[in-house]
Amino acid sequence: MHLRVARHTNNLKAIENFYVNILGFETLGGFQNHNNYNGIFIGKPELDWHFEFTQSQTKANNKFDEDDIIVLYPDTIKKYNTLLKSLLENNIPQITAKNPYWNENGKMFQDPDGYRIVISPLKAEKLN
User: Structure pTM?
Assistant: First the structure.
């Protein structure tokens, strides 16, 4: 089974920059003016999942709460630290998670649309 997480955005370029240049994913493909939508596919070629972000003249009406998160598990502590460094060097502020588990087992940030992302070591270890 393959998984695609699709989301509409008002700023496709900022989303692409965040997920590709800061988080280290790759642009796998995209499309222009398909039924009045532009879109990009972001992920890693060897994975069986990816993100799809679309933009159109219809404004995104993103509705989410503090517990709606994407959790990324780098598979080594070196990759974890590299990812945190990239986020902080790009002035992406760390925020406090509503669920205390994520504060103890990862670091939370927001993407350009305000969606929350947790970076957590693959083996959940207390980090504080």
Answer: 0.90
